[in-house]
Design goal:
Length: about 140
């Protein structure tokens, strides 16, 4: 796992269980990788206290599949935060094959912070908001959720 200039990278090796009946990585596996990269990025940038107080749920997911991945391919999931508006936090992810640098998939996901105990949407606080959004303060304080 690596964090370089606000882009977090999670290495991935395609396993046999990732392959579908067509002989390539199943589309649902890409969705799992997008989620794993986001959660790993959260773990790197958050404190233990923040992780015990907040969980994140997906409220919107868009993914474009560009090329297929195959058994034993070495990939990287590159993820970075976008704007947050209200309680909707944007995150972008690309899945890239290392050998030829081919873009295999790209995703835009909206996440919502929820209280770890009540599982209800919650304002994450200024520190979390600043680390997980590129929006200027006037946009970050709007409440669209």
């Amino acid at each position: 796992m690596e964090l370089v200039q606000n882009v977090f990278e999670l290495p991935i090796t395609v396993r046999e269980e990732d392959i579908d009946q067509l002989g390539h990585v199943n589309n649902l596996v890409y969705v799992r990788w997008v989620q794993e990269a986001a959660l790993a990025h959260w773990k790197v940038l958050s404190t233990e206290q923040e992780r015990s107080r907040l969980l994140w749920v997906i409220i919107r997911h868009e993914i474009d599949y560009k090329r297929a991945a195959y058994l034993n391919d070495q990939l990287v999931a590159r993820t970075w935060v976008g704007k947050a508006e209200g309680l909707a936090f944007e995150r972008n992810t690309e899945i890239v094959r290392i050998s030829d640098r081919a873009l295999l998939a790209k995703a835009r996901t909206l996440w919502c912070p929820v209280d770890a105990k009540t599982l209800r949407p919650v304002e994450p606080g200024g520190d979390v908001r600043a680390r997980f959004s590129t929006a200027p303060p006037e946009i970050m304080s709007s409440d669209i959720f």
